[in-house]
Specification:
Radius of gyration: 18 Å
CATH superfamily: LarA, N-terminal domain
Number of domains: 1
Oligomer: single chain
CATH class: Alpha Beta
């Protein structure tokens, strides 16, 4: 069985977040069950863009604060990194309130745009450039934000690892792999290489509607944790009322032997889901490149035909 733990968390008050993080980790054996003294642990939050915490675009500082302190107490060497979509990771972290936390706790901020080429034997692409710090860390603690997504329907633990992709081609992948099923296969390829030891989801306030950046903040009131990105996404997407059949990587992973993922093996521990009383989230209106404004779809087709960017290289 693969455990996914749940804990109530009604606000971002630091004491309440600290208590919720402790509660969600208790059924899993606490942080000490996942991390050891002197290990280099990379925190991977969602730092999509430099928005204030109340916009619910990025992982909330209070969650990062609680987790970072727990690891520091274990004498881990903690750093925080992402490959922000807009601007440098440092600038994005400053705008999102994470830099203040990191500076106060002595946690270095690393930019995952410094990368290393990784080859995939049977991937949808032969290779991708992934963040060097993510590849070289002893362990990764994935800190996603629960949100709906206009292209992928849902973004949480699996999709958050797309932030480990580095290099100038990253921004074009959403265009060249415009089909959600193809993009999902790429996400699984990334997850086959970048394997977080723990995933802890900020779902205190998530985002519904036109996510991942233009949706509406909505209270979900919980934190989730587990060692499987797929199991965590299976549980959390169901909790907010989304159709799992539209989350293609969840169905695709069940057919890929390297993941050994079967939803019947997922066990929810901690607080009972019914006690969370989570309102259903409004899905995003799904869009593809072909349904975007004509100049976007034409640009996508142009770069695919021209060879300026080929996702298969």
């Amino acid at each position: 069985m693969t455990d996914v733990s749940l804990a109530k968390c009604g606000s971002y008050d630091q004491e309440k977040v600290d208590a919720a993080v402790k509660a969600v980790m208790k059924p899993l054996g606490g942080f000490k069950a996942f991390f050891k003294k002197n290990e280099k642990v990379l925190l991977k939050p969602n730092l999509l863009r430099g928005c204030p915490p109340e916009a619910a675009v990025t992982t909330h500082p209070a969650v990062v604060d609680a987790v970072a302190r727990a690891l520091i107490d274990l004498k881990c060497e903690v750093s925080l990194g992402d490959s922000s979509f807009f601007g440098s990771t440092r600038k994005t972290a400053e705008a999102a309130g994470l830099a203040e936390v990191c500076d106060r706790l002595g946690v270095p901020i690393v930019d995952l745009r410094k990368g290393k080429k990784v080859k995939f034997k049977n991937g949808i692409m032969p290779s991708l450039t992934l963040g060097k710090a993510a590849l070289e860390a002893d362990a990764i603690l994935n800190l996603p934000k629960l949100k709906t997504h206009s292209q992928m329907y849902y973004t949480c633990a699996v999709k958050n690892l797309f932030g480990c992709v580095s290099g100038p081609k990253k921004g074009l992948l959403h265009l060249t792999l415009a089909d959600a099923e193809a993009f999902s296969q790429m996400l699984l390829d990334i997850n086959s290489v970048i394997k977080p030891r723990l995933n802890l989801v900020d779902a205190v306030i998530g985002m519904e509607g036109a996510g991942p950046a233009r949706g509406t903040p909505k209270k979900a009131g919980f934190i989730a944790a587990g060692n499987s990105t797929l199991a965590v996404d299976w549980v959390t997407s169901g909790l907010v009322g989304l159709d799992r059949n539209k989350i293609f990587y969840l169905t695709q992973a069940q057919k890929r032997s390297e993941f050994k993922f079967n939803p019947i093996d997922v066990k929810v521990v901690g607080v009972e889901p019914a006690k969370l009383k989570i309102p259903a989230f409004k899905p995003a209106g799904l869009v593809s490149v072909e349904t975007m404004p004509i100049f976007v779809s034409r640009f996508s087709r142009l770069i695919r035909r021209s060879g300026i960017f080929n996702p298969l290289t």
